[in-house]
Design a protein that fits this description.
Number of helices: 8
Number of strands: 4
Strand content: 5-15%
Helix content: 55-70%
Shape: elongated
Radius of gyration: 26 Å
Order of helices and strands: EEEEHHHHHHHH
Structural class: mainly alpha
Strand order of the largest sheet: 1-4
């Protein structure tokens, strides 16, 4: 139970004949949480009636992009390299997530808007790494590595980038613990996956190619 005491003193107002005393108000924890932790936010307009729920659209874009990228990383069916499916980084995922983010913002849904925007910019930024035409590793190119994408410096930079993203996703995971179970599971899995992928890039930078491959693949048959 939550107790609140309003102490106005025991002063007497002789002219008005008023007497002030201590007052104690007791309320259950559920009522306290409803009043102070999750207050009712007034909604302006009738957007909830005029527009459909945009959250499933963003989740569909996220799931399609994530599952496709995960299966490519694990080498299912002999898959190697994400260049053929670069569209998931620029159209399928980000496009649907951005549409969802805009309508979440219009409808006043703050946290879903933040989540959709976060994943949209992640896919857009990470997708740039999958485009060989940009030649992002060229500054690290050597005679033995003309693309520069196998250099320790290049892969360490990506590893650091993914570590930062992991902390951002973990922060959102903490926020979702009391909000939405589905969102909490999504952020928990995404945080773990990003940090594991970061470890793969650091192993690649260290020249430990077998460990890097193990971190991005599921070993069905140990060897």
């Amino acid at each position: 139970m939550a107790n609140y005491t309003e102490n106005n003193g025991s002063n007497h107002d002789e002219e008005k004949g008023l007497h002030r005393t201590d007052t104690t108000v007791t309320m259950p924890p559920e009522l306290f949480e409803k009043l102070y932790l999750t207050p009712k936010v007034p909604v302006v307009g009738d957007y909830n009636r005029r527009f459909a729920n945009p959250t499933p659209l963003g989740i569909v874009g996220f799931v399609i992009s994530t599952f496709t990228f995960a299966m490519v990383l694990m080498g299912w069916g002999g898959a190697q390299g994400a260049t053929p499916v670069a569209g998931i980084f620029f159209f399928v995922g980000p496009l649907l997530l951005i549409f969802s983010m805009v309508f979440e913002w219009i409808m006043g849904n703050f946290f879903p808007m933040m989540a959709m925007g976060l994943y949209a910019v992640f896919w857009l930024s990470f997708g740039l790494l999958q485009l060989p035409t940009l030649q992002l590793g060229q500054p690290y190119a050597t005679t033995g590595d003309p693309t520069g994408q196998m250099s320790p410096e290049y892969n360490s930079v990506i590893g650091i980038y993914l570590i930062v993203w992991g902390f951002a996703l973990f922060t959102f995971f903490v926020f979702t613990l009391k909000v939405n179970t589905v969102f909490a599971l999504i952020f928990a899995c995404a945080t773990t996956a990003v940090w594991v992928l970061s470890g793969a890039y650091f192993k690649l930078a260290a020249g430990n190619f077998e460990a890097a491959a193990s971190l991005q693949k599921v070993r069905i048959i140990p060897h």
